[in-house]
Each structure stands twice: as C-alpha cells, then as structure tokens.
Structure to design on (457 residues):
C-alpha cells in the first residue's frame, strides 16, 4: 500500500513547496530582468539583489489560509487563496516601493516576481492535488458510531476537503437506517474490522457515552497504527466550524476551557490590531459617513442613526449605534428578526447593508473596547434569552469580546431564525477555539471581499 500523507505532513510539505516556489520565482524574475537590463546573470548578480527574497516570507504567510485542511484539496478555494496572496504581495510591494524607490525595487522585476510566484504555486498545487487524490495513496476511513450521529459524519465525506479519503463503510449501533455505504458490523468488532480492511483512520461518531469495551477496541486500533479521531474534530477540520447539535455540555471542559486556542493570542496584540484597523477606517469613515448620512436624510428623513442594546462579553450590555437602514416604525410591534428581503428596509438601507456601510458608526464601539474588529456578532438582549434556551452551548460565545465582523458573518451572513443562530454558533465556537491575530487578519480580508462583492443583506 502507498505511503499515506497525513494532514500535518501535508501542511509541512505545502510550506516547503510554497517557499520553494517563491524562491524560484525571484531567481527566475532576476534572470528574466537581465535581458532587459543588459547585464549577465550570475550568482554575484543574484546576491546583489537579495532584497527581492524578502518577498518569500510574505508569500508564504499570505498563502497560510490555503494550507488549511478545509481548503487544501478544493481547487476553487486554492485558486482564490493564491489570487488573494497575489494582492497581498502587490500591496506590500507598493508600500516598500514608496520608501525604497524605483532604483532599488524596479516595477518590472516586481511584475516578474508576482507573475512567477502565482504561476509556480498554481503548478505546484495542481501536482500535489493530483498526487494526494490518487486511489493508491488515499486515506482509508471507517466510521463507528450511533445512528443519530453517523449521518453527520457521512456528509463530511462529500466535501472537497476529503477528496483524498476512501470511506470503507460504517460500524453502527442503534436503529438500522439505509446507508449509502456498506454496514460492516457491530462496534464490538471495530478493531478486527479495521485491521482486516487495512483502514488508516477510524472516525468515532457518538452522541452517547463510549462504553469500556469500545474504548479498549479503539485503543487496539491505535496500537495497530490506525488513527482514531472524533467526529467533532474531523468536522472542525473539514468545515471550520463546530457540530453544536452533537456536543454535550462536558465538551466545554476539554475543548473550550481546557483548550490552548483562546490563550494563543495575546490580548494586547489583539487590542493593538483592533485600534490600528479601527483608527485607519475612521479616517475614511468620516468622509464616507457624511455621504451616507446625507443619503439617509434625503431618502427617509431623520433620524440618521439607530441604536440597540446588545450583549457583549460575559453578558455585559452595551449600546450599539448604526446608520438607520429601516423605516422609523420598523419595530412598532416589538423586536423581531430581519428576514431576507425584509420590506421594512429602505432603498438606501438596502445598499448600505449590502456593502456593510451601516456598521461604520460601530468603529467607535471598537475604539472604546465594547467591540473587537473580529469576534462573534453581538446579539440583541431580547433574542439572547431565547437562544440560550433553544441552542446548546450558546452562551459559550460570550467568553470572548464580540466583533464588528466575524467567522460566522463571512460564512453565513445575517441570521433570521433560531436555526440560523445554531448554524452560526458552529462558526462562532470554532473562532473561540482557534482565534489568533492571523485568523483575525484572514477574516478581515474575507470581509473586504464580501463588501466588494456586496454580499451583505
């Protein structure tokens, strides 16, 4: 059987390949430039222009989102990520060019570097994608679990992130449902089945407690070199969210309170990022906000602003101010969700929501510390009480400062029901477990993409 490349090994290979592509791109760019510059290409020439190799770490860091498990086997997401990395590299070059000047960083070389980095990285990723998804090198999975959780685990194998996986079948307890894959036997035989079928990984999808016999058999699988992974963990890796409906409250003890993720980010570094971005946007926001305010006055009159009480970290309430996007009598009958195509939204309000410009006044909330630039969206106090009763683990999102934008916002947008809130909570809990400055920067970049694509509501 061919050597299976594990996700951690794959990430290391990708970092190495991306760095090699960038180094090759710089060398190739300098070689190409010698033809127009009229000089000979030599090691000495390359050494005299080592400043261009600073683009290598920039390129490797900018490509970080494309090395995530959920993206690395999805061609469309890979190409999108490489395009975004190209934009980042171009912006960094413009900043450097402003300080260094054209003699140090000629624009023609920058064009060559950018073009070569993109081309070589795309080629490398296509080769790797082909190698990882060959049948001979596929990871071989078996799912063991309850009839209630197994369908959720099965759905994961339809995602591009598991294109390198071969699902051998299911070992299930509970009601016998019709399954799209073979039913291999009972959980009491999982170790024997996994060894016989030469499985590489066993996914445990259980809504109930694991009995001692099953634990012993899963340990035997691990001893035989077969990885045992929880369905919730695989769900996080593939979808970058947390399966709220399949988690018990005890999950918080080991995966949230005991997780290293929230402690990986220095509060000082996150606050510095918030202030830097908010101050930069405030300068622009003053001019844009003046135009927005005038448009609201012309379209629907006063008031220009609208405020609500929202629930922040640890349940603390604060006042959130936004540009008004609805009719003045929008909540004459009390607080209510805003569904898609809400008739209460004004003509100007619809444009503001699509471009998220109604959120500009919230920059003040970021500066005073009630909001972060990135975090779970703060919900209205009237809805929080309902959601805490209806959605498991909902209050866990209050362990971090809410954000102007967030992982749930860039993936799900606005919600208008309890079901939407539950799905958004899957993304929020993923953010709570994995947040970092780099993740915040990724979310901010995705937010800009949504704004330019006018994908708000």
């Amino acid at each position: 059987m061919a050597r299976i490349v594990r996700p951690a090994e794959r990430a290391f290979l990708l970092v190495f390949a991306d760095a090699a592509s960038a180094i090759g791109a710089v060398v190739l760019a300098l070689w190409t430039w010698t033809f127009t510059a009229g000089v000979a290409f030599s090691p000495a020439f390359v050494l005299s222009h080592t400043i261009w190799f600073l683009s290598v770490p920039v390129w490797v860091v900018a490509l970080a989102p494309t090395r995530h498990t959920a993206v690395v086997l999805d061609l469309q997401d890979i190409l999108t990520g490489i395009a975004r990395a190209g934009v980042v590299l171009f912006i960094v070059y413009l900043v450097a060019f402003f300080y260094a000047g054209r003699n140090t960083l000629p624009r023609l070389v920058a064009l060559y570097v950018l073009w070569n980095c993109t081309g070589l990285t795309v080629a490398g990723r296509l080769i790797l994608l082909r190698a990882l998804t060959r049948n001979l090198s596929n990871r071989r999975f078996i799912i063991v679990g309850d009839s209630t959780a197994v369908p959720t685990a099965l759905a994961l194998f339809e995602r591009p992130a598991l294109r390198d996986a071969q699902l051998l079948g299911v070992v299930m307890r509970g009601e016998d449902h019709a399954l799209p894959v073979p039913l291999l036997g009972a959980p009491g035989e999982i170790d024997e089945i996994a060894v016989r079928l030469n499985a590489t990984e066993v996914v445990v999808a259980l809504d109930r407690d694991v009995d001692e016999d099953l634990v012993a058999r899963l340990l035997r699988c691990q001893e035989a070199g077969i990885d045992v992974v929880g369905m919730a963990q695989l769900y996080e890796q593939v979808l970058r969210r947390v399966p709220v409906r399949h988690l018990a409250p005890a999950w918080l003890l080991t995966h949230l309170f005991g997780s290293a993720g929230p402690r990986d980010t220095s509060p000082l570094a996150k606050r510095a990022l918030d202030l830097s971005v908010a101050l930069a946007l405030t300068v622009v926001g003053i001019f844009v906000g003046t135009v927005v305010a005038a448009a609201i006055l012309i379209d629907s009159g006063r008031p220009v602003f609208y405020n609500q009480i929202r629930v922040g970290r640890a349940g603390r309430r604060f006042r959130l101010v936004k540009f008004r996007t609805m009719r003045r009598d929008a909540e004459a009958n009390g607080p209510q969700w805003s569904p898609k195509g809400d008739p209460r939204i004004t003509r100007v309000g619809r444009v503001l929501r699509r471009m998220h410009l109604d959120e500009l006044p919230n920059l003040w909330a970021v500066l005073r510390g009630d909001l972060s630039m990135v975090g779970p969206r703060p919900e209205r106090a009237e809805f929080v009480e309902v959601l805490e009763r209806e959605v498991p683990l909902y209050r866990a999102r209050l362990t971090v400062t809410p954000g102007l934008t967030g992982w749930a916002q860039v993936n799900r947008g606005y919600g208008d029901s309890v079901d939407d809130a539950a799905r958004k909570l899957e993304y929020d809990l993923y953010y709570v477990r994995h947040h970092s400055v780099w993740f915040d920067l990724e979310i901010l970049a995705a937010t800009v993409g949504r704004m330019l694509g006018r994908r708000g509501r």
